[in-house]
Fold:
Amino acid sequence: MIGKKKKDEVIFQVKITATECVQNQTLTIRPLGFTDTLTVNISSRCDCECDEERLDPSVCSGHGKVDCGICRCDSGFIGKNCDCETGGKSNKELEKTCRKDNASVICSGLGDCVCGQCACHTNDDPKKLIYGTFCECDNTNCELHDGQVCGGAERGHCDCGKCKCNLGFEGSACHCRSTTDGCKIDKGSVCSGRGKCECNTCLCRNGYQRPFCKECPGCPSPCARYIACVECKAFQSGPLEKNCSKACSNIILKETLSGGKACREKDSQNCWISYKIFQEDGEEQYSVTVNPEKECPEPPNIAAIVGGIIAGVALIGLLLLLVWRFVTELIDRREYHRFEKEKAKARWNDADNPLFKSATTTVVNPQFGGQQG
Structure:
């Protein structure tokens, strides 16, 4: 019942199986949430006396015998009149072909499975038809306009849940007259070739915006995407040079453009190319006007580069030499100061040296007694 609207037809299926003989039983059926009820009187024929008038055996199509008023079919045949040849399939296998999927009921609950095919029920309303492979379609369950299905016979008709509009009308309920005046800019194409006009309004696709499907804010910029085509078309160079006409058939060079997007991109030679690109009506058709002058970087000065390298190497060598000389000087000074400290600590005594001999010799006269007066 979820999703049903007013005036929608709802079909309930109830299956009752008698496990024993039933005599004049009464059942009341009432769906939850409804006040309407259905009372069913049930009685069963417990014994088959076969006292009714015997049927002509020809009603079983020559593939069975009449027994107690019904056809008892020969092996390989089924059906009320034994007119269905099973081809080795079971009754369940034949019923499977009458289901739209495993979760569906047989023939959508609106028909009978006869020999593996749906035979749709007829309806008390002669205007309502039930049809389709699985009896899933009808000609009444469509949108209403002005209280009529698909706006009435003048505007369209219902076909399997969708309105098929007559010439001159359109819309989901055939509620609009066919016209495209509001979907064009001046003499341009309908919805710029990037949508369809319904009820005189553009229904754009692929991210393009109303009213005329001209702009696509979320689409990637065509500048970087088509720089290779612009290069090969305007300058006969780049990665697409040999296959330019085929790979860039949607790019048309023009001398001037009244509108479009300004682009500035680098080409395969690292040069800047300035151009304007305009999307024509349709999905992938562009017009381009290109500035014939590229902005290429100046070539490097080889002499300056070589001289700079040599000067750099010489400067690095000189710096390394100065660092080496400075470190050596520090080491020498540290060793000298250490020597001076050791020298200051030493206490030298000449007499203590057994090998030392003075440079002067003193001779004493034993006869000398002092000075004479």
In short: The domain at 21-87 is CATH 2.10.25.10 (Laminin). Residues 113 and 257 are 67 Å apart (CA to CA). The mean pLDDT is 82. The first strand starts at residue 25 and ends at 29.
